[in-house]
Amino acid sequence: MLGDPDKTAAGPYGVLMPVVGIAKRWTFYIGKDGKILFIDKAVKVDSAGADIAARLAELGIPRKK
Q1: Read out DSSP for 20-63?
Q2: SS3 19
Q3: CA angle 9, 14, 15 (to 5 degrees)
Q4: Helix, strand or coil for residue 2?
Q5: How many C-beta atoms lie closer than 10 Å to residue 15's C-beta?
Q6: In angstroms, rounded to a whole number, what is the distance separating the alpha carbons of residues 56 and 29?
Q7: pTM of the entire structure?
Q8: Domain boundaries, the chain
Q9: Of 15, 39, 61, 62, which one's alpha carbon is 20 to 30 angstroms from that of 50?
Q10: What is the pLDDT of residues 37-63, one digit of tens each?
């Protein structure tokens, strides 16, 4: 979750909707090296947590205990 009230991140990540001035609800999975591993452009509010956990597993990110 990123709070970006001045939209300094939304612009460079390409998620800012110019007409309404808000960011699209996308999830970026970023590796330890700073590279983007995956972008989920179809975020579902009702299942976002489970979807994130599943995607992290698919990307081979170990689950912390």
Answers
A1: TTEE---EEEE-TTS-EEEEES---GGGHHHHHHHHHHHTTPPP
A2: coil
A3: 80
A4: coil
A5: 19
A6: 8
A7: 0.82
A8: 25-65
A9: 15
A10: 999 999 999 999 999 999 999 999 988
